[in-house]
Amino acid sequence: MSSRTSPVTESPNQPSLEEQVETLKRRLAEAQKFTALGELMSSTTHEFNNVLTSIINYAQMGMRHQDEATRNRCFEKIMAAGNRAAKITTGVLGMARNRSDRREPTDLAPLVQDAVMLLEREMQKYRVELDVQIETTAPALAIGNQIQQVLLNLMINARQAMPKGGRLVVRLSQDEEGGVCLMVRDSGSGIPADQLPRIFDPFFSTKSGPDESGKGGTGLGLATCRDIIEAHAGKIRVQSTVGVGTAFTIRLPAANPVVPPSVMKSAVDVAPTAAQQS
Ligand SMILES: Nc1ncnc2c1ncn2[C@@H]1O[C@H](COP(=O)(O)OP(=O)(O)OP(=O)(O)O)[C@@H](O)[C@H]1O
Ligand SMILES: [Mg+2]
C-alpha cells in the first residue's frame, strides 16, 4: 500500500489559517463571556440567598420576642438586608442594561462598584481586605460589560492568589494624557518570572481545577482580558514579585483625550518587578 502525504495548501473553499484563528478567537471570547456570566449568576444568587436568609431569620426573631428593643433591632436588620437586596438587583440590572457592543463614553466608577459589591462577601469569606479607590469619573471609550468582565477576572484571580487572605486594592484613576487606568493589586503569591510571559496564553493555568467556589482553572481568563483590552486599543500591564504580590494595570483611551493617544506598540506589558505597595 502506498502512503500519500497531502501537501499543506489552502484550498479556495477552506478558510485561511488566519481566518480559522480569528473564528476560534471569537468562539473563545464567547465561551469566556458565558463562563463570566455563569460566575456572576452564581455569585449573585448566592448573595441574594444570604440576604433572604437574614430577612427571614430576623423576622422570626421579631415575632418570637415581644419587647420593643429587640423588635426595633430586628426591623433595622431587615431594613439593612432589604436595602442590600435592592442594591444587588440594581447592580445586576445595570449590567444587563450595559449590553452594548459599541465602544462609547463610559464612566467606569459604577461598574467598579457593582463588581466590588458582587464579590465583597466572597472576599470577606477568604479574609481579603478590599480597598476601593475611585479617583476619577472621567469617561473611557469602552464597552462597559466587557471591562466589567475583565475586572471580575482580575479580582477573582487576585482572590485565588491569596488563599490565606490579604489585601486587594482596586483603583480607578486617570493619567496625564487623560487615559483611564484601572489597577487591581493583590498581596498574594506573586508570579514566578519564568511563568510571567505565559500567563496571557490561552489555556495557561497553574490551577488544578475550579476551587470550592467553582471558579478558576481553564486558563482563559487572562487571554480574554488581553483580547478585550487589545480590541479597545488599550494596554494591560502586569508587575509581580513572588511572595509580595501582583498588580495588573489596564489603560483605556479616554472618551475626551487631553492629548491625542500615542500609537500603542503592544497591548501587553509584562514586568517581573515589585508590585509597589501603597
Ligand atoms: N493575581 C495573580 N496572582 C498570581 N498568579 C496569577 C494571578 N493572576 C493570574 N495568575 C496566574 O496566571 C494563570 C492564568 O490566569 P487565567 O486567569 O488566565 O487562568 P486561571 O485563573 O488559571 O483560569 P480561568 O480561565 O478559570 O480564569 C493562573 O493560573 C495563575 O497561575
Ligand atoms: Mg482566572
UniProtKB/TrEMBL annotation:
Organism: Blastopirellula retiformator
UniProt EC number: 2.7.13.3
A Pfam family this chain is assigned to: HisKA
Entry-linked SUPFAM superfamilies: ATPase domain of HSP90 chaperone/DNA topoisomerase II/histidine kinase, Homodimeric domain of signal transducing histidine kinase
Gene Ontology MF terms in the entry: ATP binding; phosphorelay sensor kinase activity
Domain Histidine kinase intervals: 43-256
Record key words, sorted: ATP-binding, Kinase, Nucleotide-binding, Phosphoprotein, Transferase, Two-component regulatory system
Catalytic activity reported: ATP + protein L-histidine = ADP + protein N-phospho-L-histidine
Protein name: histidine kinase
